[in-house]
Write a structure and sequence with these properties.
Helix content is 71%, strand content 3%. With 140 residues, the protein is mostly helical.
């Protein structure tokens, strides 16, 4: 008998590739997107005088540090896979992208925020949860 209840990995009518598609879940993912804040801070910290590799590593650390309070606070309530993984990955990717772009040329604050949000949405689009990868493998 397959497992039932909260920990079941059975596909439901509310998932697309394992990701929730109900509006309040999608809205929650967008609200938890830390890319805008990380992008803004990285634009203020970095300049074209920075080495790109060093800027990328420091930007990744900034993204992780800024995302950690949100990830821990919401992750305790909603779970690591649903909150912590996307928030921390968004912070890291947005920090790397914006810091590298800023080390190449000066970015306006609005453009840095836009890059951060775009990075976060990209991370959400690439997010595949374990149950969806099992379903994809079973289709082969």
């Amino acid at each position: 008998m397959p497992p039932t209840g909260h920990f079941s990995h059975a596909p439901t009518s509310h998932t697309v590739l394992g990701m929730e598609d109900r509006p309040y879940f999608v809205f929650g993912d967008l609200v938890a997107n830390t890319g805008a804040v990380v992008g803004e801070l990285c634009a203020l910290v970095f300049s074209p005088a920075w080495n790109m590799l060093v800027a990328m590593l420091v930007g990744m650390a900034i993204g992780m540090i800024l995302s950690l309070p949100l990830a821990l606070g919401l992750g305790a309530l909603f779970g690591a896979m649903e909150i912590m993984l996307p928030v921390m990955t968004t912070g890291m990717v947005a920090g790397m992208v914006v810091s590298m772009a800023t080390s190449m040329e000066s970015l306006a604050l609005g453009r840095a925020v836009e890059l951060g949000v775009t990075s976060g949405i990209g991370v959400m689009g690439l997010e595949v949860r374990p149950e969806s990868s099992r379903r994809l493998r079973s289709r082969r």
